[in-house]
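FIELD: query
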Amino acid sequence: MKYTMTTPCDACPFLAKNRGYTMKKLRGYASGEFHCHKTGTTDEDDRRFVPTKDSLHCAGALIFLEKREAPHQMMRICERLGMYDPTKLNMNAEVR
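FIELD: result
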């Protein structure tokens, strides 16, 4: 998974405009690696999301966690390795 996405997509569950997700559900999504649904494929049999080697971490989840000063362990590791730069995130995005 890559940590290079900086702005949430228009259908991101973390955007304030996209209602229907409880804070409990969002915290669950953000508790670990959470792929952007637009960066994978869909299994033809059961229509489930399937990440690829090029899938990106959801920018909304990254912003959600950074706003709370609570990055998960992989965010911290990737930052130390130069694979994630939180200063490039669009912190003006309307993320809850």
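FIELD: remark
The two ends are 23 Å apart (CA to CA).
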